[in-house]
Amino acid sequence: MASTIKDVAKMADVSISTVSRVINDSKPVSPEARRRVLHAIEVLDYRPNEVARSLVTKKSNLIGVIVDDIGSTYVSYVLRGVEEIGRMYNYDIILLSSYGDPEVEMKFSKLLFQKQVEGVIVISSTLNQKLMYKLEESKIPYANINRFYDIEEDLTVRINYEKVSSEMVEHIIENGHSNIASIAIRKDIDRTEEKYKVDGYESAMKNHGLSTRSLYTAGITEQDVLDIANEIDDAIENGTTAFFCSQDEIAVYLINYLVDRGIKVPDDISVTGFGGTGITNIYRPKLTTVKIPYYDIGAVAIRKILKVINKEEGLEERILLPVQILKRDSVKKLN
Amino acid sequence: MASTIKDVAKMADVSISTVSRVINDSKPVSPEARRRVLHAIEVLDYRPNEVARSLVTKKSNLIGVIVDDIGSTYVSYVLRGVEEIGRMYNYDIILLSSYGDPEVEMKFSKLLFQKQVEGVIVISSTLNQKLMYKLEESKIPYANINRFYDIEEDLTVRINYEKVSSEMVEHIIENGHSNIASIAIRKDIDRTEEKYKVDGYESAMKNHGLSTRSLYTAGITEQDVLDIANEIDDAIENGTTAFFCSQDEIAVYLINYLVDRGIKVPDDISVTGFGGTGITNIYRPKLTTVKIPYYDIGAVAIRKILKVINKEEGLEERILLPVQILKRDSVKKLN
DNA sequence: CTGTTAGCGCCTTCAT
DNA sequence: ATGAAGGCGCTAACAG
Q1: Contact flag, residue A315 CB and nucleic strand D, below 7 A
Q2: Contacts of B130 (CB under 8 A, 6+ apart)
Q3: Torsion angle of the four alpha carbons B306, B309, B311, B312, in this order, in degrees rounded to the nearest 10
Q4: Which residue of A has its CA nearest to B250?
Q5: Which residues belong to any copy of the HTH lacI-type domain (chains A, B) (predicted)?
Q6: pLDDT confidence of A151, banded at 50, 70, 90?
Q7: Is domain A62-157+295-317 annotated with CATH 3.40.50.2300?
Q8: Domain B161-291, CATH class in plain words
Q9: Which band of pLDDT confidence, cut at 50, 70 and 90, is reported for residue B335?
C-alpha cells in the first residue's frame, strides 16, 4: 500500500494539515516543520492521492475526448494540440474511441460525467446532434471539432475555406491554367466545409471570367473517386488541365487513377488538395495543397474550454485560424 | 450541482445504503424500495460519482498510456487496440504524449501514479530504461511496446521477425530474383527487431546459395535513405534487382529516390517493406510488405495488464503474434 | 504558524 | 431487508 498523508504526518511529527500545507504551498509553514515533512515525503516516497484530492476540491483536472477513430490521421493530429495544451494547464486527457457509433458516444458522455471530467471535446467526421444536446444541457464546457461539418452555431474554431480556396485557384490560374475543374464531396454539402471550398473555387473562376465545372464524389475513399471516373474523363476530354480537389485523399486517388491510365501528373494534368498531412509529403508528386492547422484546431478548442473552466474573461471572439498553401509539385506551369 | 446519493435517498425515502445497494446490485433490496430508488434516480438524473467511488473501492478503472507521439501512425494504430479492449473491460485510458523526452516521461509516470491508474502502457520508438525501472518498482502492472526495440526481458508481445523476413525473401526469390539487397536501420541493431529481419534475410539467401548485401541507414527519414544513395546506386550497378527493406518508410523513400532517378519500380527494381499501415495502400505502386498487427499488439498488451489486475490465472505464456505478407505490386516477376 | 474538526460522495460492516 | 456509523485520503475553515 502506498503511503498516505497520515504516514507522512506521523513520521514528521506534525498534523496532516501541516503536511497538506507544504504539499500545496497553501499556507505558511515553519522552515523546521517543512524540512521534516519534506524529508518524510522523500523517505516514504509519498505522492498525494489525486482521487481523494479531486473528491474534496471538486476538480478532476480531466478532459474527456471522444473521437470516432483514434487511428485516423485527422484525429491524431488534432489530438496532439489538445493533449499538449491540456498538459500545459495540468489537465489530463481521457480518450474514448467510438468508431462512429452514435449510441456508443452517448454512453461515453455519461461515462465521462461520472468520471467528473471538467470538459469534453468531440473530434469526429460525422455529426451526432443528440450528443451535442446532451453536452449542452450538461452545462459542462465542450467543444465540437468536425472534419467536414462546419456549422455556425457549433463553431469552436473555424477556417476561412472560401478565401483559401480562391487563393488556391488563383495559384492554379497564375500557372497558366484556365480550364479548371473542382471535385468535392456532395454529402450534406450545405452543412460542410465543402460548400465553402466550392464557393471559393467558383468565385475565383468567375472573377477571371472562366467557366466552372464542379464534380462531386460520395466520399473520400478510393472507390468514391473511381465512381466518378466517367466525369473525370469527360472533363479531361473537354480540355480540363487542372483539378482543384477539396480533400487530399480525393487528390491522391485521382492522381492514382490518372497515372494508371497513363496520364502524367503534373505533366499532363495538375491536381491540388486540401489537408497537408503526412501522406502528402511522402506521395509523389509532392502534392500542392492547403495545409490545415490540425494541431492548432485542437489547441484552440481545449484552450477555449480551459478558459471557461477558469472563468477567464476572454472576450468570446470567434477564432479564425490562418492557413497556408503549400506550393509543391503537382501543379505544372503552362506556357 | 449534480445530485448525490443523499438526494436520491431522501427522495426515495430510504437510507443511502439502500441506494448504494440498488445501484451496485450488491445486496437484496425489496422490490418496493428498489422501485422508489430507481424512480428517484431517473427523476434526479443521478449518476454515481466515480471519484468518490474510486476513493473507497480503490479502483480507478484507469490505465495510463504514455506515448512518444500520438500523431504517429504507429502509436495511433496500437492505441486502437489498447482503447477498444480496455473499454470492453470497463477501463478508461489516460493519454500522455511525451514527444520522446525521457524526463517528461518520468514526470508522466509520477502523475499517473497520483491519478491512481491501475496499469501503465508505454508506446514509443525510443527506449527509456529509467522509466521501466520506475514502473517495475512501482509494482503496478505495465507493458512496454516499442516500435524498434525488441528486448527479451521487456517483451510483452512479440513477432517472429526472422521467420517472416525469410518468407518475404523467399517470395522475392520465387519471383526470379537472385541478387537481392537488404536495407535496415543500423542504430542499436543488436537490441532491435532490425537484427532479426536482417538475420531472416541472410538465412533465406544462404539457404538458396545466394550472396547477401546488407545496407544500413541511420533511421527512417527521407534524408536517412538519401544518405546511403551511393550504396544503393552501387548495389544496382552490381546487378541488384530487389531491395528487402526493414520498414515501409525506407521502402517508400527508396522508391521515391529511384523514381526520381528514372528507375521504375517494380519494372526495373523490386522493393518490399515492413509495416503495412495506411500509406502503403495509397502509395503507388502498392507496396508488397509485411502487415504488422498493430491493433493486436495493443490489444494483447492491455489484456495482459488486465489479467494481472484481475488476478486471472492465465499461464504467463509469451504471446507470439502471427503476421501476414501482403503480396502486392512492388515486386516484379522476372522471367 | 499549527492542530482539530468537518466533510467531499460513496461503500461496507455491523446491528437490528 | 434496512439504517446507522465509520472511513477511503485529502482540503479547508476554525480556533488557538
Answers
A1: no
A2: B102, B106
A3: -10
A4: A282
A5: 3-57
A6: confident
A7: yes
A8: alpha beta
A9: confident
